[in-house]
Design goal:
Blueprint lengths: L1 H18 L1 H35 L8
């Protein structure tokens, strides 16, 4: 009984990994992490720098 359950569980796990669901989920997660880093860098380094220069302030600490 136990070995039969182990075999079926192993077969189900292999079939699940073969479908590619885990791979697609991992790729989507990494894409989200990279997109978050790009947006944060854009906001902090480019947009806030332009606003600080336009207002004549050196940074957010002076506000």
């Amino acid at each position: 009984m136990k070995s039969n359950l182990t075999r079926t569980s192993l077969k189900e796990a292999v079939n699940f990994f073969k479908k590619g669901n885990i791979l697609l989920l991992a790729i989507a997660f990494l894409a989200g992490v990279v997109f978050n880093a790009v947006v944060a860098s854009l906001a902090n380094d480019i947009i806030m720098a332009a606003i600080s220069n336009a207002l004549g302030k050196s940074g957010l600490e002076d506000w």
